[in-house]
Amino acid sequence: KVVIWFQSPHFQILSFALGVLNRRYGSISVLGLTNVPPAANMKNKSLGVVIDKNDLKTLDYDIIIVSGQDTSLKPVLDESFALNLDVDKIVLDRTVCIPGFSMERYRKLRRSKLSILSQNCWGGLIYHSFGLQFLSPTINIYVADRDFLRLLDDPKSALDSELRFYSSKVDDASQRDYPIMTLGRSKLHMIHYDDAESARRKWEDRRLRINWYNLLVMMYTENALVLKQFDRLPFSKKICFVPFETDVDCAFHIPPELVRGRSFFEAV
Asked: pTM of this prediction?
């Protein structure tokens, strides 16, 4: 039994998410809509009646799907907590569409408070796709292989170091300046930040959230020697994306047909 909570009138993937749930659980029933923008209300009368959010306290439902283009789960969770709703029943429509999704596994993931140290924007995309809080400072950055391995050699000490401005660089894709920062002996390309101060502020906020008891480390490389160095690091949860076949346990092979003429960086 599903309730749809709108965060914006843009809900392109909602019907696909409902189809995924229908296939996953056999059949679903949409009880109605809440937090409905006027445009969404006009286009979705077939989905059910409009439900006042206060009435959710007594309504018998299994899942609340939050729908809206590029929306965040946090404001919905905050409001739901204030309303004394069961936040474990709330999920984003884009999260439902992730292959292998089940509500049971998703609840377990969200409760685990996973921190992801990633070499590029991959970690941020994972957090965004699952609607999870950023419990890591390595969001919207890129780090070269050797610099990332140096950081991972003693991550607690490295992340306690002061983040310092090094230089500016123009991003080839956006043609915007971004800051390069140093952390100990590693250089961090803060490619989605406009200036060093905003990059430093976000870094510090997120650094303090790290859950060292549930850490996933991600990198990618085209170098087999770098892969072996990464594999020797003492992390229980780690993955390295590579464009070649290998028997290294932490490696995930991306075959050439998935790269399709792009750089390996873009494929990852």
From this structure: 0.90
Write the CA distances from 73 to 83, 225, 239, 254, 261, integer angstroms: 15, 40, 26, 31, 35
In order, the DSSP letters of 135-173 are -SS-SS-B--HHHHHHHHHSHHHHHTSPEEEEEEEE-TT
3-class SS of residue 2: strand
Report the pLDDT averaged over residues 139-155: 95
pLDDT at residue 45, rounded to an integer: 53
Sign of CA dihedral 222, 123, 238, 94: negative
Contacts of residue 246, defined as CB under 8 A and 6 or more positions apart, other chains included, come to 224, 227, 253
Per-residue pLDDT tens for 105-142? 999 999 999 999 999 999 999 999 999 999 999 999 99
Is pLDDT at 190 greater than 90 in this prediction? yes
Please say whether the beta carbons of 34 and 53 come within 8 A.
Answer: yes
**Residue 3: closest CA among 37, 35, 32:** 32
Q: What is the CA radius of gyration of the chain?
A: 21
